[in-house]
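Consider the following assembly input.
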Amino acid sequence: MEPSSSNKEIRIKGIPASPGIAIGSVLVLSGDSIKVDSNSITPDQIDAQIAKLMQAIEKSKIDLIELREKAEQSFGETDAQIFDTHNLMLDDDLIIQEAIKRIRERLETADNAYFQAVSQFESYLAHTEDEYLRARTSDLVDIKRRVIRHIQGKPVFSFALLENPVIVVAQELTPSDTVNFKRDKILASATELGGRTSHAAIMSRSLKVPSIVGLGSALQALETGDQVIVDGNKGWVIAHPSLQTIAIYEKQRREFAVYQAKLGHIRDLPAKTRDGKKIELSANIEFPEEAQTIGEDGANGVGLYRTEYLFLTRKELPSEEEQYREYARIVQIMGDQPIIIRTLDVGGDKLPTSIKIAPEDNPFLGVRGLRLYLPFVDVFKTQLRAILRASAKGQVRLLLPMITTVSEIKFCKEILAEVKEDLRRGQIPFEENLPVGATIEVPSAAIIADIIAAECDFLSIGTNDLIQYTLAVDRGNENLAYLYQAYNPAILRLIREVIEKGHQQTVWVGMCGEMASDPLATMILIGLGLDEFSVSPISIPLIKEIIRRVDYTECEGLAETVLKCQSVEEVKAVLRTILKQKFEDLLYCQIIAETNQD
Amino acid sequence: MITKTLKIKNKLGIHARPAGQIVKTSSRFSASIYLSKNGNEVNAKSIMGVLMLEAGYGSEIILRIDGEDEFEALRALEELIDKNQFGEE
């Protein structure tokens, strides 16, 4: 077949942020396309222009009331508060007076005067040292766009007015863009900027529409009305697709929809093998927003709540109160389901601005994870206090990162006892029996897992670091990507030992690394006796489906076979074959069985 | 007219949320209210003004209030900034 137009097919690669496939027409949301009337007015028009400006501001305030309500309903109070700041900015006398002065003295049109006035404050904020204040410039851009469209009598863009659903393309999506996202209006989103944890990515995941971020300036080639394909599974945007490409993706889209529908029905069913072995299936999360949707995905709790974002997105360390509010919020969302909170896990490659350590030649072998608590014991204590206080409100468990020796656990437990004593004296409620777990991600800890387990209530295997430290390979080093082998027999043996030694000490053993989300690994991990899988939210239905379709005894047999393999190639060949045989209908497993060839 | 020097005691300083609180509190009063830091004076009823003050943890700000309800305004702002520390640490 011939391409549908003279435009050549273009493929742009980005970071897949929310899975799924969409085919549709583009709507470019552009913040920079504000055009103002730069002609001069005559003095007799001054009053009319000022009146126009004030009316537009009033109309914008009415918009914001509506947006705030919507945001509160869809995303909660914290997201809604963004619009309070917008409201204050709209009302701001400095901005309004500057705009009026420009109309009066420079005879500028209302839209031009407001544009110039706000832009002036934008550049002030953009040059402050405070990262937080700098981020407020996007709020100013937002109100500027809104007021100017009202002055010009143009409709302020609203998704509610769209007749057909679109694929939203933007440089970046602001909260007031995403608050209007509705599943029946948005097919997918694609942005130039942002990472997997950007606002647009999180919102898309919670709405379950495909999303790709970090596509770069190549995205600017797209125009409203262009036909594109968004492959949120692999991170491709395909512009001006040929009819042939459309046919291929249309098929994939249907298959993916069938796959999702198939997995959707098991949401409320337990993660249990056919012969009755119950597995804890929980989710790894990074933001409170994610906690709200993991129940819908069918998770039994949070197996890893990473707290680093609280420390890394700002200049100052978060206070106890702020941490407490954040933790308590998630704990309350989870109700009676468990939530494992991991204490701060950072190192020399990525540190909060206010924590300074001497430069290191090799940060991954340096002062990182729990090793940082010795020089910065107050940071650790503050976090423990906040976690303990939140523990009074639900099922909290504490996870310590990067345990290397048993004395480190003893040290942390001493600090924990001190903090508890402090809270007791202050008559502040907390859970006295807060379970404490160790992350097993350093080979030394894996080898002495029995000694570590004797000091803990549970173990959680962090495969990403365990692989990198065991095989002595930096997982970011592209030249060594072939050596970063999750299925290396050495890794599988270590995992087996950790689980066995944990069980010897009668503690349960979980896994929170990426391997737990890999369907290729599910059966062997069950067979090795892993008690808990903590996986990325989007992997929950698939992993649950696999658990529900297998027998524990069959998995034990498979684990035994696989652990006799001598090489990673052998291991993978066995696993791929069984995945293809048993789960042929699960599209994702197929993709993994075919592509996971390295 | 009354003036009073206050120290910013919450660790994050006057970021967006506290700035909003200052503006909302100040706007309840008819008195004119100004904040200054290092000789830089801004209107406390303007979010842009308060944000641009960039008052971080430990910085000293001077409140200058002029108007009929100046004492009530001072009390409310002292409570917000000094006593409650914006409800933060």
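Residues 43-151 of chain A form a domain with the Enzyme I; Chain A, domain 2 fold (CATH 1.10.274.10). Ask yourself how this observation constrains the way the partners meet.
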